[in-house]
Amino acid sequence: MDISEPLWTSSECEIACGRQRRRPWYADGVQTSASSVLPGDLYIALELEGRDDEEELATAFNRGAVAAIVPTSSPASDIVDDRMMAVPDMEATIASLARYARLRAPMQTVAISGARGNRTLTAALVATLGSTGPVHSARTSGEGDLARTMIRLARGTRFGIFDLGVEEAAAIQPAARLMGADIAVLTGIGADVEDTADAEIRVAAAAALVETLPAETGTAIVAADMPGADRLIGAALATGRQVITVSVDPASGADIAPSRIKECWDCTCVTVDVLGTPVTFKVAAPGRIWAISGLIALTVAVLTGADVGQAALALASVQPIEGRGRHIPLSAAGGHMLMIDHSAGLEAGEMRDVLKGMTRVPTKPGGRRIALLADPEGAPELSLVSAMVSADLSRLFALGDRVAEAGMEAETAVERVVLTQRLAERVISVLRPGDVLLVCGGTGTGLGAVVAELVARCSVDDDHLTLNLRLAE
Q1: Do 261 and 118 have their domain in common?
Q2: Nearest Cα to 16, choosing from 164, 172, 153?
Q3: Where would you find the membrane-spanning parts of this chain (predicted)?
């Protein structure tokens, strides 16, 4: 247990909660479930419901909790124990602790709001800002959820990264104020709602977030390539805050856009001027979603005073995350093959780019390019035919009419499939050594389960994959 810099002390909790305890203590962790308590933790009894409360409290102390905060409404609050602090309102207490944690941490805070690429952006920000100082990152939903993560905020945290996802204005503003956001990153409203009433709700929420930023120093960064970017830019400008647009298209006219971008099968290389700082960097993940994440991360690094050189170098270590371009080695039919996992959900434009990128992925002699595709989100007018032609697929497993029709028009061998437990088995039956399998589709298509089944049946270690692919080059 590291207690050189405790997460919480009894005096801090007393100040934050307005309660006093006779026994001093310090804790280097926080748990809200008694069964998760480790020695040295502070136990905050959020899950007490009146049944077996005393037993839950005993469990926490037996597991090594140094102190406990419990609601006065619980029978456990009647126990005489100087390690306990009883409070009338647990949610208000959590919020008070969160505010105290925020005030003591010398951090600059980035709030991410939108429907596209939030996880890839978070990964890029953690890598770039983490090269300068300690980072706290979390994906939250609403003020209460945010408070629960902020009570775990270390006192030396320099950068906070909070993914708010898609929230309405009434929920997003209290959360943004609690975290003390300095920078807002708007990642798009989502192609699936671009022409619906939900689009205006999401634009209003983005504007509400930007309004919480400091009037003089707050900055909104807008991903200019994402759906609804024009409306987001207009809404952000209307708040009077500084707005910076970022694009991967050199001809876009965005404030931050590369002078050169090269996409390879396993990485993306970019040269760009970031607010007067020339940078060349590599993201160790292919695809434009990773390129724009890198551009935004470097923009944030400049704005926050992070070490831009170290930040650029850190991007080279960023690996694709689950469902977002991760390269997974498979072993079947007496040999090795590669699966590219985009099962987390793609919009039509993203699927088109991924298909076109398939031509850059090396195959061993005799290897083929095969795809398992589900219909993407949004943009029904966007044709996937030319991308199918570019991908040069030997076979397409089509989970949806749109991809099936595009594949047939591209003169690809199409097999229509349905999402069953036997789908992975069917795909495995046609794979042979040297093949590259692409799996992608829109959100909610269930392809993640298929990927998991393929991995379970055909997994192989990364060293075999590296050797296999290098031999293919």
Answers
A1: yes
A2: 153
A3: none
